Protein: Alpha/beta hydrolase fold-3 domain-containing protein
Amino acid sequence: MPPENPETLLTIQQRRERLSRLNTLRNEVSDVPQIGITVVGKTINVNGGDIPIRTYVPIPNESLGESVDQSFPLLVWYHGGGWALGDLESEELVCRAISLRKRLSVINVAYRLSPEFQFPVGLLDCYETTKWAASNILELKADPHKGFLVGGISAGGNFAAVISLLARDDPFFKTHPLTGQILQVPAVCMSSVYPDRWKDQLVSTEELAEAPVLTKWSIKQFIEQYGSPDPHDPRVSPLLAESHKGLPPAYLQICGMDPLRDEGIVYEKVLAENGVPTKIDIYPGLPHGFAGIIPHLKASQKWKDELAAGIDWLLGQGEEKKRDIST
Structure:
């Protein structure tokens, strides 16, 4: 094994402080408007803990044909950070922009982090918050029949993929099933248990072991902090789920210079093979999470525009399914 990368010598607290400074700077210089939506921060008690959330609800706009009692599609969003980093500020701009520009009711979840809270605490925080959302649609001015999406980036993308699997098989979601999943640079399978069928296509972890932003060594550290859960558990490696049939449509955004690149590409193939509608956008030569780090890049704007188009596509899949049922 190559020498330990110095990056892994950073403590989790040092990483958290670095990310907090980055988020503060990015949010201060953002051009995302702070008007046109109602933003509310609160704490809910789920999974035996008090979980901070922030809700973003569009203010009805008559010029868009919206009435004062307008309801909106629902999106629950999970931030990234290797299950150990991040908070509500990490995805503030993403959630605000989606709510304002795409007219969705959005929930931003600050799940409990490792190593203080190890697997599956953070996952269950997000899952139970998603159930809370489905049970509080009046407060959120949401209509899950117009769309009920889950999404996230990196570790949050892992949560979105896993929660899509859990919700598919949970009677709770029979009334309000998930209608779409947004998977941005998701971690979907621990490299120690890559399936034999796909191993020759899962090479980015080694090829890009020292890529910018996310390295093989930092992934290893994050997994250890997460509690080194059983890598075969589909709640950790959703690629290994017994079946992917019946999952909601998936939109994926994948970075070309990312150790997790091939996991996302293969996961899209597996979903499509199982009859799940998919749409994927790939950003060649760009590192993990680049759009949040350097938001003014032309490619970052492309990422945002394609996320907006991906949301439209997911919502359209729900409308298409309704038409098929009605005919």
